[in-house]
Design goal:
Layout lengths: L3 E6 L9 H6 L5 H15 L3 E6 L5 H15 L4 E4 L14 H21 L7 E7 L1 H4 L6 H17 L5 E7 L16 H14 L3 H12 L5 E4 L4 H10 L2 H7 L22 H14 L17 H14 L9 H4 L3 H9 L3 H24 L1
Parallel strand pairs: 1-2, 3-4, 4-5, 5-6
Helix pairs in contact: 3-4, 4-6, 11-12, 11-14
């Protein structure tokens, strides 16, 4: 019997009658064109494919997707949960809202899946976890690590009762859907991770073979890696913020300030000029305006740790917590913070302003 597949994704696929036009249109987004071609390839190989748009974190949408799949095919033999969002940013910079971005698909999504399958359990459920759940994954991966550790815990618990649940802790894949996550890092850092993926990444044929072997293993959790696991765990333990930053130290030269929503305003005070100079050095820019946003300039949490530490050293003052960049993301705001007499009062005032803005925004949306 040919394969019968139900592909459930948060983004709706275009109607089939539009596929030929979209495939021939050079302006069609690459991921859309690639997805259409993959489905056509599957069908050309004899598979029957049903596409359903549904958010796995929404119980109503996912339950409806299951009903539609059962109406179309009769029963569901197995489920593979491969949804995921990369974790980005150090813990010091995280709020509950942005941590939920990485936690949601794996934690909430898995809960929805298991609840919706309770009445008509399939033969197996495979959870696509990550090797980061056991190695930690390095700086900026705390939410992603926690999300995958949850998948492993579910598989271990469900192994005692209920349907067969397997969590696979995948290592690096050669295919990368999250390349944009490296934007803002120095070219040397980007090249390091890209080379590492080419050298150690799992290919599709290897991954398929590993999946079949994992399903036949009888285990609840397995690690799939092309590298010696002991060495990989040790490397992850020593892969710190300083390690990542050192990869970018070979960056030379400056580039132009990018186009921003804010107009360029030159630093006015000595403190603003000092802070702007540190920003230029960290970000590789020729100039920075006092109202420019650090994150819009290409900054990220790893660079933010180094930037705040250097500013404090230059000003010969007590260290600041790196997350103040979220409260003071511009040169002017940082200068105001470090020049003020009462730092804690300034931080509290900024937090209160932010909470009030969010409250007003929610009210406007509710109207």
């Amino acid at each position: 019997m040919s394969a019968r597949l139900v592909l459930v994704g948060r983004t709706e696929y275009p109607a089939r009658e539009q596929w030929a036009t979209l495939a021939a249109d050079a302006s069609t987004p690459v991921d859309v064109a690639r997805g259409i071609q993959k489905v056509l390839d599957l069908e050309a190989a004899g598979a029957e494919v049903l596409l359903i748009g549904a958010d796995v974190c929404d119980a109503g949408q996912f339950r409806a997707a299951l009903e539609r799949a059962r109406e179309h095919f009769g029963r569901i033999d197995g489920v593979i949960h491969a949804a995921g969002v990369p974790g980005m940013g150090l813990l010091q910079f995280k709020s509950a809202d942005n941590a939920a971005i990485a936690l949601g698909p794996k934690v909430n999504g898995t809960r929805v899946i298991m609840d919706c399958l309770a009445e008509h359990a399939p033969d197996f459920v495979v959870l696509f976890s990550s090797i980061t759940s056991v190695t930690g994954g390095g700086p900026g991966q705390v939410d992603y690590c926690a999300a995958n550790a949850y998948l492993d815990a579910v598989a271990q618990q469900m192994g005692r009762h209920g349907p067969r649940v397997l969590s696979i802790d995948w290592g690096e894949w050669r295919w990368n859907a999250w390349g944009a996550g490296l934007s803002g890092y120095a070219p040397e850092i980007q090249r390091f991770f890209e080379a590492n993926r080419r050298r150690f990444g799992i290919g599709f044929d290897e991954g398929w073979s590993a999946l079949l072997r994992a399903l036949g293993s009888g285990q609840s959790q397995l690690v799939v890696s092309t590298q010696d696991f002991g060495e990989l765990a040790e490397l992850s333990r020593t892969f710190t913020v300083d390690t990542v930053l050192s990869l970018g130290q070979a960056t030379h030269g400056r580039h132009d300030r990018p186009e921003l929503s804010t107009s360029y305003v030159a630093p006015g005070s000595d403190v603003e000029r000092l802070i702007a100079a540190v920003w230029c050095d960290c970000l590789g820019l020729d100039k920075v305006g006092v109202n420019d946003n650090f994150f819009e300039l290409g900054g990220n949490s790893l660079l933010g740790v180094d930037l705040i530490a250097r500013i404090c050293r230059e000003l010969d003052r007590e260290p600041l917590a790196p997350h103040v960049l979220y409260l003071a993301p511009s040169v002017a705001a940082l200068a105001e913070l470090v020049s003020g007499p009462d730092e804690s009062a300034w931080v509290d005032e900024r937090r209160e302003r932010g909470a009030l803005r969010r409250q007003n925004l929610r009210k406007r949306r509710a109207r």
